[in-house]
Amino acid sequence: MLDRYETSLRGLARKDRLRSLSGRAGLDFASNDYLGLARSKRMAEAVAAALAAGTPVGAAGSRLLRGNDPEHEALEAKAAGFFGAERALFFGGGYVANFALLTTLPQKGDLVVLDELIHASAHEGARAGRAEVMLAAHNDAGAVDDAIRSWRASGGGGRPWIVAESLYSMDGDRAPLGDLIAVADRHDAFLFVDEAHATGVYGPDGRGLAHDLEGRDNVVVLHTCGKALGASGALVTAPAVLCDYLVNRCRPFIYATAPSPLMAVAAATALEIVADEPERRERLARLVALAGKRAEALGLPASGSQILPIIVGDNARAMALAQALRSRGFDVRGIRPPTVPEGTARLRLSLTLNVGEADVSALFDALAAEWERAR
C-alpha cells in the first residue's frame, strides 16, 4: 500500500532533493523576519492586552458565520488606510490568499499571465482556476505584452490578468512594476502584485514597492503578515467591489475558519510599528549594503535586497555548503529544484534584524572559507 510513496521518496533522495524538517539553530540567516518583529515586545504586549480584554484565541468559525471578530474588521480598515486602498480582506496566509484570488477573480475566458519565477501558490491557483494561463519570461514586460497580443490574435476576448511579485523570494530582484502597469493599462488588464517580501521593508512607511499603484481600479495587491510584519496571515488590498466579490464567491475564504483574532491584533500593531520606527528599515538597509559588498568581494553578484542568493548549481554541493555553515553557527538553508530552476540550487541568505553587522561579516568570512570546497 505504501510502496509507491517509498519509491517516490527514494527517487528524491537519488536526486539529492529529499527534504526533512530541522529546527532553529544558530544565527538567523534563513527566516523572513526581516524587521525582527516576530519577537517584538510591543506586539506581544498588544496580544496580551487583547487576551486580557477577552479577545478569543480562535475565531471558532468562518467569517460569514460567527468568526467575524471586531479585530478582523479593525485590521482590514487599518490596512486599507495604511496601504491607500479602497478595501482590505484578511486571509489565513499568503499561499491560500494567492490560490484563493487566482481561482476566483480571473473568469472563464480571461487570461492569466504569470512571471515564470512567481511563487508556487500563484502557479497552483492559476492552474486550478477557470482562465487560460500563460507564462512570461522573468521580469520581462515585453514578454507579457507579447503574450497578451498573441492571445488576443488567437481570439481571446476576456480580461488579461498580469501576476508578478514585487520582490522575488528566491532571487531578491525587483519586478518592473512601472512597465507592467503600462502593459496593463494598454490592454485593459488587471495587475496583481504579490508584495510578500517587500511589505514593511520598502516604500514610504514600509508600504511596499507597489505603494504608488494602490487604489487603482485595475490593481490588486497581496501583503503577507508572516514575513516583515512578524505575525501570520495575509491582507489583500483591492477595489471594494472585488473584495465584496471574494466574500461572496471565494471558496477558500467562505469555507475556511477565520484567522485568529489575536493575529489580527498582532498584524495591526506591526503596521503601526513599521510606520513609527523607520530606523528598522534603515538598519536593514545597512545590512543589505554590507552583505552586497562582501558578496562582490567574493566574486558573487549582489541582489540589492535583503534576499541574497548564492548560486551553487549542484544540489548536493549546495546542501553540503549549507550544512557546513550551520556547523559554524549560521542558520543558512539550501534551496533546490523544484523551488528553483534545475541547475540553480543555491543558498538563500536572508538578512534580518535578528543579526548585526558583525554577524554578517562573520558569515561571509565563513562562506569564503567554505566556498571553494563546495564548488
What's the short story on this structure?
With 375 residues, the protein is an alpha/beta fold. It has helices at 3-14, 41-52, 70-83, 94-104, 120-128, 141-153, 177-186, 240-249, 251-254, 261-276, 279-297, 315-327, 357-374; strands spanning 27-28, 87-91, 111-115, 132-136, 160-165, 190-194, 219-224, 234-238, 307-313, 330-331, 333-335, 345-350. The longest helix has 19 residues, at 279-297.
Secondary-structure element pattern, one letter each: HEHHEHEHEHEHEEEHHHHEHEEEH
Spatial order of strands in the largest sheet: 2-8-7-6-5-3-4
Assign the structural class, choosing from mainly alpha, mainly beta, alpha/beta, alpha+beta, or little secondary structure.
Answer: alpha/beta
Mean pLDDT across all residues, rounded? 95
SS summary, helix count: 13
* Beta strands, count: 12
Largest sheet: 7 strands, mixed
Estimated share of beta-strand residues: 15-25%
| First and last CA, distance | 41 Å
Stretches where pLDDT falls below 50 for ≥5 residues? none
Helical content, roughly? 40-55%
Radius of gyration over C-alpha positions, nearest whole angstrom: 21 Å
